[in-house]
């Protein structure tokens, strides 16, 4: 990271950023070329700093096919707390934000209990509420995780 003065390293501040972001973009390359997709997500942040993101999707489509074929890391990015800052001239305008980006490994979840737990984390992150999922509900969607220890968080204006 070039601007170390903007880096967020405090685990509590990173957890706060994760709780406020609602969309994560995942970038992967498939046979058609680069592909980026915005997704709602749930997460777990371990005491060691490992971040696991959870997503769901339809059981068919380019996104799932690309992730199933992926053998290497994927990239991800999320941002929040957007605020335009005015200046006396156009070149003195700025944009405050908080962001987190990195790379990680994707794993398609198969076990119904693991899928239900991931979907519960996703719904908690998005709604603040707890939900439970039946086995038939978990079978109706694809669920995947992205685990990363290679990420950085940064901010401007906060």
UniProtKB/TrEMBL annotation:
Record's protein name: Pyridoxamine 5'-phosphate oxidase family protein
Organism, scientific name: Neobittarella massiliensis (ex Bilen et al. 2018)
Transmembrane segments: none
